[in-house]
Amino acid sequence: MSRPEIEIRDLHKSFGDTPVLRGIDLEVAQGEVVCVIGPSGSGKSTLLRCVNLLEEPTKGQVFVGAAELTDPDVDIDAVRRRIGMVFQQFNLFPHLTVTENLALPQRRVLGRDKASARRIAAQNLERVGLAEKASSYPSSLSGGQQQRVAIARALAMGPEVMLFDEPTSALDPELVGDVLAVMRMLAEDGMTMMVVTHEMSFAREVADRVVFMDGGTIVEEGTPEQVIVRPRHARTRHFLSRLLDPAMAEVEEGKHGKGDGPAPAAGRP
């Protein structure tokens, strides 16, 4: 059996005396899309940032492929080259064109020559539907276009894994669709993805597996049907009821009960 593309073992993270992650165990197979959902403050973004060691775990192990990122002797820069990350904010250089934003990290990190970096930049701008914006500056782009440029920049580095931390949360609602369409395309192409999101329709349609977090733990995980449509835990039902359309929430309550009983202890089912 092949090794998971991402493997997280007994992951803990505290900030000072405040625990944020309380023993996370999670695997993501090659080509799998895992959406992580949950209320604000549940540890979702911290989990994602621990996967590429932007946050150093307090305890536990993180593997990407065969490399253990939490090994003190690991070449962290080499492993990070295999991991693309897209944040809530776009973090584009305002004084550089779109092409230059994509080419610069390739040249500095991967050592590509200028012509190769620009060629790969053009390929990935085409991939996200923004070839015509190659010579534009970020200030002339909509928020959705800037986020698609940020995705193209990550893809230009040739990652094996993509991490998305609420990539649409800073966008106006009418701009969200184009970004999610690019992410759907990546999923169809077989990219391994961990996505922290509140976009439940995206999670239902695209995710192979959905993980619901609360209080720094995984409360439940399973297929979108199991977690979003027929959640087993009261905490999951309560969270989803606040996101669903009110009429849909009423239907769900009628099917599965209102979940008024005490929330079950955190843990994987």
From TrEMBL:
Domain ABC transporter: 6-240
Source organism superkingdom: Bacteria
Molecular function GO labels: ATP binding; ATP hydrolysis activity; ATPase-coupled polar amino acid-transporter activity
Gene3D superfamilies on file: P-loop containing nucleotide triphosphate hydrolases
Keywords, sorted A to Z: Amino-acid transport, ATP-binding, Cell membrane, Membrane, Nucleotide-binding, Transport
Membrane topology: Peripheral membrane protein
InterPro entries, sorted: AAA+_ATPase, ABC_ATPase_HisP-typ, ABC_transporter-like_ATP-bd, ABC_transporter-like_CS, MetN_ABC_transporter-like, P-loop_NTPase
EC number: 7.4.2.1
Main localization, broad class: membrane
TM ranges: none
Ranges for region Disordered: 250-269
Catalytic activity: a polar amino acid(out) + ATP + H2O = a polar amino acid(in) + ADP + phosphate + H(+)
Family affiliation: Belongs to the ABC transporter superfamily.
Protein name, UniProt field: ABC-type polar-amino-acid transporter
